[in-house]
Design a protein that fits this description.
heterodimer; A: alpha/beta; Rossmann fold; six-stranded mixed sheet; four-stranded antiparallel sheet; 10 helices; about 40% helix; B: mainly alpha; two-stranded antiparallel sheet; 11 helices; globular
Amino acid sequence: MSDKRIGDVILDVKNISLAFGGVKALTDISFDVREHEIRAIIGPNGAGKSSMLNCINGVYTPQTGTISFRGQTFDHMDSRQVAEMGIARTFQNLALFKGMSVLDNIMTGRNLRIKSNILLQALRIGPAEREEMQHRAYVEHIIDFLEIQAHRKTPVGQLPYGLQKRVDLGRALALEPKVLLLDEPMAGMNVEEKQDMCRFILDVNDEFGTTVVLIEHDMSVVMDISDRVVVLDYGKKIGDGTPEEVRNNPEVISAYLGTSH
Amino acid sequence: MGFFLETLIGGLMAGMLYSLVALGFVLIFKASGVFNFAQGAMVLFAALAMARFAEWIPAWTGLDNLLLANLIAFVLAGAVMFAVAWLIEYLVLRHLVNQEGATLLMATLGITYFLDGLGQTIFGSDIYKIDIGMPKEPLMLFDSVFEGGLLVSQEDLIAAGISAALVAMLTVFFQKTSTGRALRAVADDHQAAQSIGIPLNRIWVIVWCVAGVVALVAGMIWGSKLGVQFSLSAVALRALPVVILGGLTSVPGAILGGLIIGVGEKLSEVFLGPYVGGGIEIWFAYVLALVVLLFRPQGLFGEKIIDRV
């Protein structure tokens, strides 16, 4: 991973605080993400990892702080705008369109890019047909990449969990995002599935040049694939740096691994 | 034999109209989780608009082509339904996102009465007729196949054709277009749909517009059969058992449910009626729905909702 070119800051989170009533989910969190890196956010359960992701994604509106994406600064994000700007996400608890096939699920990720008139689409006329084919070709590329060719037409509700996770990733990739937010991509997986998912994340980062922000509480996985790691605990940032630095940070060790390290 | 088939076909025709109203319920429920009590009021509103425009247009423009006048009236009534859909979303539902189901139901109940009143204020409260030039005399079929043949109403046949065309168009819209895909996506998972940039508010407006058009077609057909009057609004109540039977989330369920209830009503009325003193048609659908609720609460085709506790 040392040979890849890490670029400038693409996503800059500054002084984000988020509270639900009296419960402080996030307190004054700042970190940045550089282009083409794999950035992990780790922390014990309830540390505020998902809240952080939801702020970036526009699901939650933080009370204070700003988020800058590619030079533009926002005090809150809007879900649709976020998708348009090139930030896609996956979900911790699968949020797939269960009644739809694998193909259709991933095709929905292309929706923002489909420009042709709805009437032409319905009638499958000329330019609309051609456009549909282009998007379909891109989606097929993703399906090949994720090795789910055999399940193209299967309703996703019928797939095993590990494959559903891949479809979730595929749908996000269909947006051709600049930044990919992964909410516990390895949660609930067995060792083999975890290894597969790791490989896909590394390949996405490498082949598509996508910047990856991932949340995980499986420490070993994170340390293997991340360039830099942010550590949260009780909504506060307690560590930030390379896996090596974070691993040796005493505060992280006591909060995350317990004092009896 | 001939009589049985005639009853069956009559039931299918009636059932189709139930299906159309039920379809309106299902579309909105699937996409937004709102049980739209106002679907019946929308049918009445659309039918009123269509009937009055068809009357006004020849009067204003001197147009004497019946078909053309009806066509223009249909388009105008469609535009009115789009406006209604947009206003409902913009003024009511947008502010109630993520509220309890009961709250939304009450809101649509309010919309029902408002639309009933508004329709009569704008378009008048007499009985109007929609005359789309459907032939009234019945058609004799299979005269040579068996004795007596089959007596089928041409009007019903045309109505069936229109409904089938509408369902086919909706199917293409849902399955083949990107907007249709977005609608299905929203129906399955709001948050995920938002995360890939599908705008929920716009999708909801579209769904209500589609439901408005379905209401218009239903209103047009009912109206041309029975005349446009206030009681049309109560058609929705007849479609409720259909929705329960077919399942709240299933489009094929709405269509099949409507047909089953239409046929069941007619057959039971004709063949069981004499033994229990008649009047079965009125309560048959509700009893059937009740039985379904006891044994298959999700309906014949609806999604089984399993809550983890």
